[in-house]
Amino acid sequence: MGNALSPASQLTELSDAEKAAIEQQSHANAALIHETIRAEGETELNRTASALSLSGLAAGLSMGFSLVTQGLLEARLPDAQWRPLLSSLGYTVGFLIVILGRQQLFTENTLTPILPLLHNRDRKTLNKVGRLWSIVLLANLAATWVIAFVLARAPIFNPIESHAFAELSLHALSGSFGATVLRAIFAGWLIALMVWILPAVGSARPFIIIIITYVVGIGHFSHLIAGSVDAFYAVETGRASFGDYATRFFLPTFIGNVIGGVALVAGLNYGQAAPQLDSTNEKKMPIDGP
Q1: How many C-alpha atoms does 96 have within 13 Å on its Cβ side?
Q2: 236-256, pLDDT tens digit by residue?
Q3: Are 234 and 174 in contact (CB under 8 A)?
Q4: How many other CB atoms are there within 10 angstroms of residue 260's CB atom?
């Protein structure tokens, strides 16, 4: 499959050495990226419930560092129009820890396990995706509540820093239902695009993560897990209720993130890779004799 999916595989008149030279200068094509991510998705779908839960808990806790770092920058930078341009860099920290640490984040799973589902198109894979989503989402949310509780209640930060956390936490709850859905579509879209891009960038992975999640942060796009840390902090400090979290943040953000990740990235990118994958599979099918 690997050779069949390579950019030089269609140039049958070239020698193996010439094809190898072309491969070194070529970008990975859509089909190759698709199969790389699908292989990762198959692995994730077959992980044990305990492994998924622990990884999801680790990811939710790690996402707390996005609020912490952004809040600390807000507290130390002067009150100027350009302050969000710098403080939003702090938003990227949690994502760097989670993605480079290979921890389970729900919004990444709007792409990775969906590719095996689109490929297999069977109930068995659908059930595995539902299992994966349920375990990871619950673990992520439980951990974001724990880290928000600690940040709100433990005497770790000074009043200026805590005020910065509180101000940032209200952004997650600031929009109408429809506006939050739209912001969440953009966030799900960008995070899933990042997952699609990462297999092709090699050592540039940290820079891609920073750039794309910085756009999510500076655009105030609604991300279900990072935003849950913020929204739960608002709940723990008495600025919002659990009802506010459920109806003003969780539900519209969940809907938007799933649409952005599944429809706009998984579906479209599967569509562009499917013709080459089908052609490759046809070539590999044995031909029955007379």
Answers
A1: 15
A2: 999 999 999 999 999 999 999
A3: no
A4: 28
Angle at the Cα of 81 from the Cα atoms of 75 and 83, rounded to 5 degrees: 35
CA–CA gap between residue 240 and residue 49 (Å, rounded): 33
The answer to whether 132 and 86 have CB atoms below 8 angstroms apart is no
Residue with tokens 């690997």, as numbered in its chain:
2
Burial class (CB in 10 A: 0-12, 13-18, 19+), 210: middle
Residue 289 has pLDDT above 50, yes or no: no
Tokens standing for 176? 């109408």
SS3 157: coil
CA distance 209 to 186: 16
In whole angstroms, give the CA distance from residue 175 to residue 170: 10
Instruction: Please report, as a single letter, which amino acid is at residue 259.
Output: I
Cα–Cα distance measured from residue 63 to residue 96, given in angstroms and rounded to the nearest whole number: 9
**Nearest Cα to Cα of residue 192 among 133, 136, 108:** 108
Count CB-CB contacts under 10 A for residue 209: 22
* Other C-beta atoms lying within 10 Å of the C-beta of residue 173: 20
Structure tokens at 48: 């044990």
Q: What is the pLDDT of residue 173?
A: 94
Please compute the mean of the pLDDT values over residues 6-10 and round it to a whole number: 55
Q: What is the pLDDT of residues 193-206, one digit of tens each?
A: 999 999 888 899 99
Is 232 in contact with 145 (CB distance < 8 Å)? yes
Alpha-carbon distance of 175 to 219, in angstroms, equals 13
CA distances from 239 to 36, 72, 224, 231 (A): 44, 20, 19, 9
